[in-house]
Amino acid sequence: MLTKRVAVTVHASDPLSRAGLISHFQHQPTIEVVPERTADEADPPCGTPSVAVMLADRIDEPATTELRRVLRGGDQRVVLVAGELREPDLLTVVEYGVRAILWRHQATEQRLVNAVHSAARGDGELPPDLISRLLNQVGRLQRATSTASTGTAPLFGMAPREVDVLRLLAEGLDTRQISEKLAYSERTVKNILHALMTRLHLANRAHAVAYALREGYI
C-alpha cells in the first residue's frame, strides 16, 4: 500500500479546467498538489512519488506537444484525463509512457485519486473499453507487420510465464485475478511484470500487452 504523499502537478489548457482538477485533490491527505518544477529547481526528495495529471479534450498537436514536454521532465508518471481518444491516439499516448487514462466524464474524485496512486506505484490503468480498442488496433498492426515479416525472431524473448501473465492481462484481469488463475502470489505477478517491462523498456502494462501482441506472443 502506498503510504507516502504523492506530489502531483496539474496540466490543462485553460485555468477553469485546471482549477477543477485541483479541487479533487485539495482535501486528500496522501496527495499534495505542487507547482511544476522549473529547470533550475532541485529535484524532489529521493523516494517521493511524482505524478503529472494532464487534461486534454482531444489529442491534437498542442496536446501532443504538451505531453512530450511533461514527459521530458525525467521519471515523470502521467495520468491522462481525456475527453476524446481515437485509436491511433491511444497507441501513441501508451507508447509515450502515459501510466493511466481516464475518460473526462468518468473522472470522479475517487477515480482520479486511484489513478494517481496507481501511477505513483508504477502500475497502469485503462478503462475496459480502451483496452479493447488498444488490442484491436495492435492486432491490426500485428497482422500488417506479419504480412511483410522477414521471419526473424524478436530481439528480446519472453519466458512462458511472462506470456501467461500478459495473456490474462490482455483479457482484462487485474493482479489479484491473475495470481488466482496462475496460482502465483500477487507479489510474484507484479515482479514478473516489473522485470519484463524493465528488460524491454516498456512504459506500462498496456504497453507490455501491445508489445506482446505486436511480436506475436499472444
Automatic annotation (TrEMBL):
The keyword Kinase does not apply. InterPro entries: Sig_transdc_resp-reg_C-effctor, Tscrpt_reg_LuxR_C, WalR-like. Pfam families: GerE (PF00196). Keywords: DNA-binding, Transcription, Transcription regulation. GO terms for molecular function: DNA binding. The keyword Nucleotide-binding does not apply. SMART domains: HTH_LUXR. GO terms for biological process: regulation of DNA-templated transcription. PROSITE patterns: HTH_LUXR_1, HTH_LUXR_2. This is LuxR family transcriptional regulator. It comes from Streptomyces showdoensis.
